[in-house]
Amino acid sequence: MDKNTHARTYRRLPLLLLGVALAIAPVCAAMAGKDDHVEARELLKRGQIVPLAQVLEAVRKRVPGDVIEVELERDDGLWQYKVKVLTPTGQVRKLYLDARNAAVTRIKDD
């Protein structure tokens, strides 16, 4: 392996670690309250939200970079994922996705 191959591998390390975390916990949600993870699992079981892995795939296709924060919140009665991505240029972009189907509804620069 050359030096560039090693650099690309190390840049992808956070994504690999994230993949391991996703395998352990199908839904990771940052919501207010102490039983939020239980609610998120129930929403997933009932089909009201998609798994985080599907959300991250949609984000990856739209904005390159490292995911630095994920939140699951209810807005106007609808669940949405809010994902912050640190781009390779150092810009932080916030993506809003419909939690029912992982469709990107808005992208905002922070």
Q: Which short descriptors sum up this protein?
A:
single chain; 110 residues; alpha+beta; Nuclear Transport Factor 2, Chain: A; 4-stranded antiparallel β-sheet; 3 helices; elongated
What is the secondary structure topology, with strand pairs?
Elements: H1 3-24, H2 36-45, H3 52-62, E1 66-75, E2 78-86, E3 92-98, E4 104-109
Antiparallel strand pairs: 1-2, 2-3, 3-4
Mean pLDDT across every amino acid position: 80
Which architecture does the CATH hierarchy give at level 2?
A: Roll
Distance between the termini: 37 Å
Helix content: 25-40%
Task: Provide the CATH top-level class.
Answer: Alpha Beta
> What integer value in Å does the Rg equal?
15 Å
* Strands, count: 4
SSE succession:
HHHEEEE
Supply the helix-strand structural class: alpha+beta
Shape label: elongated
Which stretches are low in confidence, meaning pLDDT under 50 for 5 or more residues running?
5-10, 23-32
Proportion in β-strands: 25-35%
The biggest sheet amounts to: 4 strands, antiparallel
- Strands of the widest sheet, in order across it, are 1-2-3-4
Number of domains: 1
| Number of separate helices | 3
CATH topology grouping: Nuclear Transport Factor 2, Chain: A
